[in-house]
Amino acid sequence: MKYISTRGGVPPQSFAEVVLTGLAPDGGLFVPQTLPRFSPAEIDDWRGLDYPSLVARIVTPFVGDDIPEPELQQIIARAYSTFRHRAIAPLVQSGHNEWVLELFHGPTLAFKDFALQFLGHLLDYILEQRQQKAVILGATSGDTGSAAIEGCRRCANIDIFILHPHERVSEVQRRQMTTVAAENVHNIALEGNFDDCQNLVKASFGDQSFLPEGRRLIAVNSINWARIMAQIVYYFWAALAVGGPQRKVSFSVPTGNFGDIFAGYLAHQMGLPVAQLVIATNANDILHRCISGNDHSKRPLVHSLSPSMDIMVSSNFERLLFDLYERDDVAIRQLMETFHTTGEFKLAESALAKARHLFGSACVDDELTVQTIAEEYGASDYLLDPHSAIGLAAGRRCRSDDSVPMICLATAHPAKFPEAVQRAGYPGAPPLPPHMSDLFEKAERFAVCANDRASVHRFIADHVSA
Ligand SMILES: *Cc1c(COP(=O)(O)O)cnc(C)c1O
Questions:
Q1: Separation between Cα atoms, residue 188 and residue 369, nearest integer Å
Q2: What is the DSSP pairing of strand 296-297 with strand 344-345?
Q3: Most informative mutation of 257, 316, 369 for ligand 1 (most atoms within 8 A of CB)
Q4: What is the rounded distance in angstroms from the CA atom of residue 382 to the CA atom of residue 402?
Q5: 465 belongs to a structural domain
């Protein structure tokens, strides 16, 4: 299996190279040259598999010859051994023909663990084979940093440095990062905001001369192909659990960077019968405006109660556009150029029609988010986190056929977002799961750094392992 860039400026690459690279050198995103396709009979055959075995079936064609099968199976087994639920991704019924897919049983209580536990072990294996070591550098305003740290803490060939804005992330989220006692994990609290963190990371990728000889930087943000690939699996998993592939199913997905829902789109392209994919956004609704009114224009960032979806532009959307434009890389380059210079673009009618055939969308503001959390808790004592509440509310609003099961993705555990949950009337802080109840007693370790590139680079150079 080879991978190509959505902007057409890179020769086809291997899986291993794509995983190490992240963003394509021409500024585009990597996508598989062709997708594997599974027949209904094949999918039906997977019904009895446990989660790791299903992962192996689905990702093997994407990995190709880059990793031998027994090693790949070992990587998968390790990645999902840290989840605290036997089913890995359990389904809970929330209404008539309506289900919540709980994706928050991983070590950091958010769905990002599905991809980052896997990616950490993949990278470690690939680096080991090449006898290389690498440095992961990332910026976080919350979930990504802790999930990346948990994914890499046991990787011998990786040093990981995560920047967060000093005193501007929630205490639960900070402690999930700073209480990890591992030699290769380094937290930097930058005296600046999240944008400063992101800009510093971006600039560092442009000039890596501050690193020791032979090291390279690896990005693990949601444009990394391996993250998307890992997320395809739970769409098949959930559909099989509610009667697929004989029966069509729909999904509602709390969406920020469009990584998670793009994995659902790929599942559909690979043969899973999906009736509808609902893009659920918060007040940062560029994708909802695009699908519903062909208005893909940048607006100022709104700080919402669902911070992990607070984004102005969804970078993975380019991967969908590439398909909507029949994989015409010239058209994609033009569209992105227009967006870069004017801050907006309109889709061609044919592309928009194709998108609307599968995708619905809804914007759920803070008020409806809180109302949904309160209603669900009142009706069935089930406590949703604000991101998951957006998924549920949007799924209900967009649902077009009650006979088709609607599966709403629950992307985080409510204990991570006490503010929204309390506004919904929950008394006190929602409890952490028992295995994490000592989070507030553990010692923290992080360095406070000036908002200055040279100081951060010096810190990294001083702390990279030998
Ligand atoms: C990252 C995240 C999202 C958004 O996922 P995308 O792949 O960026 O669309 C939604 N909910 C939670 C809790 C997240 O951490």
A1: 32
A2: antiparallel
A3: 257
A4: 22
A5: no
Ligand 1 centroid distance, CA of 407 (Å): 16
Which residues have a Cβ under 8 Å from the Cβ of 453 and sit 6 or more positions away? 200, 203, 204
Closest CA to 112 of 435, 421, 412: 412
pLDDT at 466: 85
> What pLDDT score does 171 carry?
87
CA 365 to chain centre: 21
With respect to residue 92, please indicate whether it lies within any of the assigned structural domains: yes
Q: Is residue 201 part of a domain?
A: no
The answer to whether 133 is a known catalytic residue is no
Give the span between the Cα atoms of 424 and 383, in whole angstroms. 10
Q: What residue numbers bound the domain in which 266 lies?
A: 83-109+225-423
pLDDT of residue 338 exceeding 80? yes
Distance between Cα 45 and ligand 1 center (Å) = 31
DSSP 3-state of 68: coil
Strands across the sheet with 359-363, in order?
91-95, 98-102, 406-410, 249-254, 274-281, 359-363
DSSP for 154-167 reads: T-TTEEEEEEEETT
Closest alpha carbon to 276 in 239, 309, 240: 239
Q: Is residue 249 part of a domain?
A: yes
Choose, from 2, 112, 346, 442, the residue flagged as catalytic.
Answer: 112
Buried b (16+ CB within 10 A) or exposed e, 150-185: bbbbebebbbbbbbbbbeebeebbbbbbbbbeeebb
Distance 304 CA to ligand 1 centre (A): 13
214, exposed or middle or buried, with CB in 10 Å at 0-12, 13-18, 19+?
Answer: exposed
- For the stretch 111-157, pLDDT in tens is 999 999 999 999 999 999 999 999 999 998 778 999 999 999 999 99
Band of residue 424 on the pLDDT scale cut at 50, 70, 90: very high
DSSP one-letter string for 172-189: HHHHHHHT---TTEEEEE
Kindly give the number of the ligand 1 atom that is closest to the alpha carbon of 112.
Answer: 15
Contacts of 466 (CB under 8 A, 6+ apart): none
Interstrand relation of 216-218 and 296-297 (parallel, antiparallel or unpaired): unpaired
Number of domains into which the chain is organized: 1
Ligand 1 shell residues, CB under 6 Å: 110, 112, 143, 222, 254-260, 308-309, 387, 411-412
Q: What would the pLDDT profile of 440-459 be if each residue is shown by its tens digit?
A: 999 999 999 999 999 999 99
* pLDDT reported for residue 141: 79
CATH number of 93's domain: 3.40.50.1100
